[in-house]
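Subject line: Sequence and fold of a protein, written as C-alpha cells
Area: Proteins and the way their chains fold up in space.
Start of record: The labelled sequence and C-alpha cell lines come straight after this line.
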Amino acid sequence: MTLRSILFLFVLVSLIAETQGATNRGADKIFEEKIDSLISKRMELPLVSSKLDVPGSRFVPVYGNVIEAGGAASRDFLDDGENLFDAESLYNAVNEHLMLRNEALLKKASADVRNKYGQLSSRFNFINLERVRIRVDYYYDRVGKTWVRPARDSVVTMTMIVKSGYFLYQDSDSLIDIRRYGYYIPNSKVKRIFFGDGYSEVLWDNPNEASLDSVKVLPYKLVERILLNKENDEWNRKKIRNLLKNREFASIPRVIQEMDEYCEENQCDEMPDYRRYLNVLAVLYKTGVLRRF
C-alpha cells in the first residue's frame, strides 16, 4: 500500500460521517483540509509568503486548481509528443539509476537495515512519471508583487518523477537508512496556490485578498525516515494481545481508532499489517465465526 493510499484510507471513515448532507464542494474541501492537516503534523512546512520571491526560481507561482493528473504515458497526454518523449527518456534513465543505487546501498547497509528492508520491500514499491495540469486563475507577478489574471485561458503543465514505497537512502558518507516515499496531487475541485515543488493549503479567497503569511505550503513528494526501534509497534502489539486475551472482538473498531491516533503522532511501521489483521477478525466476529470458539 502506498503512502498516498494510506493517507486516503486514514481519513475516509471520518470523511463519510462529516460530509453527509454537505454540498460536493464542501465535501471536497473537508477531505482536502484533512489531508493538509495530516501532512502538516508530520513535517515542518514553509509559508506561502516565504516562497513567492525566491531568487532564481524558474516556476512562476499560480493560483487555480488541478484539472488533470496521471501517468504521462496515458492517452490524454499524447498531444504533446515531443515533450512526452523527452520526459519518458529522462524517466527511464532516472529509474534505472535509482534501482541500481538502491541495490548498491543494500549491499553496504548494516544487518539491521537489511533485515528491516527485507520485511518492507515485499510491499508495493514503484517509481512513476506523473504529469499534472493546472488551470490558472491568477499568476504571481514578482516585479509588481501582486497576483494578476492571465489575459486568456491559461493552463500550466508540470511533469515530475515520483517514488512510492520503501527505498534506501544515504546522504554523503552518512549511515544508510530506509525512507518511505509517497506523493499526493490535490483534488481538482479545490483552489490552491501551486509552486514547482508543492502547493498551498486550501485557499478559496482571491490571493490578493487572502493573508498568505499564515498559509502553509505542502510538498507533492512525501518522505519519512523509517526508524529501527520497535517501541511504537510493541505498543500496538500489546493492544492486540489484550484484545485477544479478553476476547473483546466487539471493540475492534475502537482499538483501530486508538492505534490510528497513536500512530498519527508516532511512527508505526507495521500499522498497515495490524489494520488488515484486525479487519479480518472484525469480519469473522460479525459473521459469527469467532463466537463458536
